[in-house]
TrEMBL record:
Keyword rRNA-binding: no
Organism (species): Nitratireductor aquimarinus
SUPFAM superfamilies assigned to the protein according to its UniProt record, in alphabetical order: Winged helix' DNA-binding domain
PANTHER family linked to this entry: HTH-TYPE TRANSCRIPTIONAL REPRESSOR NSRR, WINGED HELIX-TURN-HELIX TRANSCRIPTIONAL REGULATOR, RRF2 FAMILY
Entry-linked NCBIfam families: rrf2_super
Keyword hit for Metal-binding: no
Coiled coil: none
Protein name from the UniProt record: Rrf2 family transcriptional regulator
Keyword annotations from UniProtKB, A to Z: DNA-binding
Pfam families, sorted: Rrf2
Transmembrane segments: none
Length: 154
């Protein structure tokens, strides 16, 4: 299985935002840090905003920021929302399949089990796990490492 470019970019954008801490940034800053297309990242930011993972503000002083703490953002949820399809073989898709083996084939079940295992790995990790090496990652992206925000006391 290959992850789509949008999912890859979404995970990279979330890593960048997590390293920024409470300080937001612009999509252009993320694009420059990773040398990626700003237009592609705008679409990713819009999708992440629709998912409730980031907040966006338009205008001159606008930008993007995490809407939740890194611990609350599971990779599995992001991957599931960003990927358009998990139909790894034709018989898993929504359309009619023309496979002669379809009535008796067990391949679909095996592929579905493999997909479940793939997604289960992402489910075990949060965005916080990806940014555990804050200083090293921040340095690679040209950021000053932001302190991880302390949880609110109730």
């Amino acid at each position: 299985m290959r992850m789509t470019q949008q999912t890859d970019y979404a995970l990279r954008m979330l890593i960048y935002l997590a390293l920024r801490g409470n300080a937001g940034c612009t999509v252009s800053e993320v694009a420059n840090a990773y040398d990626l297309s700003r237009n592609h990242l705008l679409k990713v930011a819009r999708r992440l905003s629709q998912m409730g993972v980031v907040t966006t503000e338009r205008g001159r002083s606008g930008g993007i920021a995490l809407a939740r703490t890194p611990e609350e953002i599971t990779l599995g949820a992001v991957v599931r929302e960003m990927e358009e399809s998990f139909a790894l073989v034709a018989c898993m898709g929504d359309g009619e399949t023309r496979c002669a083996l379809n009535p008796a084939c067990r391949l679909k079940g095996v592929v579905a089990e493999a997909l479940d295992a793939y997604l289960a790995v992402f489910d075990r990790y949060s965005l916080a796990d990806l940014v555990a090496e804050r200083s090293a990652l921040a340095g690679l992206l040209g950021l000053v490492s932001q302190p991880h925000p302390a949880p609110a006391l109730n």
